[in-house]
Amino acid sequence: MISYAQNHEDVVLARAFEDAPTGFYVDVGAMHPVHDSVTKHFYDRGWSGINVEPSAAYHALLVAERPRDTNLRVALGEAPGRAVLHHVADTGLSSLEASVVEQAARSGRAVVEESVEVTTLAAVCREHVRGEIDFLKVDVEGREEAVLRGGDWSRFRPRVVVVESTKPNSTEQCHQSWEPLLLEAGYRFGLFDGLNRFYVRGESAELLPRIAAPANVMDGYLSHRTVFAETRVAELEARLARMKARRSKTLFGRMFRSKGAPR
Predict the structure, then answer these.
(1) What's the CA gap between 248 and 244, in Å, rounded?
(2) Backbone angles phi, psi at 156, to 5 degrees
(3) Is the four-CA dihedral 163, 169, 173, 178 of positive or negative sign?
(4) pLDDT digits 0-9 by tens, 14-50
(5) How many CB atoms lie within 10 A of CB 224?
(6) Domain 2-215 has CATH 3.40.50
(7) Sign of the CA dihedral 118, 120, 126, 129?
(8) For the chain, which residues make up each domain, given as ranges?
(9) Who's near 71: CB < 8 A, 6+ residues apart?
(10) Distance (Å, whole) CA 134 – CA 131
(11) Separation between Cα atoms, residue 204 and residue 211, nearest integer Å
């Protein structure tokens, strides 16, 4: 498989759902439809789901490239309302938390503020989910607890939940405040991959062994970045070969004309 996710979370999830030809996901903080996407691999397999992305730019890309999905331009929190999204273009750093983007601003990146609607995970599920949720992924740059507190964990129970569990741009773990919400809802911890924590609902405990290890060589995957780079190198090499062939042909023609045609 080709892995698109930044920390190869999709490889672990593909292992968990290797026998599922179709399925349904909820991606909170979806960002780009391809780059660093946890759901791109599954969409290509025929899955569909809900992408929650408050950034106008990224939401437009999702609408254009994910017609089979439900793409919502909202943020999620503990209660409905409105909030300011601090958007850092071309990064995954955008956040409702101003402190999260301070470092990006200090480094010279432009930060654009957008007023966005805030709703809850429970409300999104009530309106758009009609069956089983195979996995929920939450990556919202410091607002994970608010998203999880806005869920209805008795009615909507994803088989697997993946939550970014380190502080933005840090290796410091920050799951202590929200992990009890999942454990009390009957979820079992399965894996910390250095960036995210994976949980499996108690009634799907058979999936725990499948997610027990991070993505590794035994999964037989290729990184999208590697595939893209190798494809680009091959294209440039082919272009260079064509340029050399044209140059050689031109030089030969000049030599032929300068010496005259053979008699």
Answers:
(1) 6
(2) -115, 110
(3) negative
(4) 999 999 999 999 999 999 999 999 999 999 999 999 9
(5) 20
(6) yes
(7) positive
(8) 2-215, 222-259
(9) 30, 50, 51, 53, 59, 62, 63
(10) 10
(11) 12
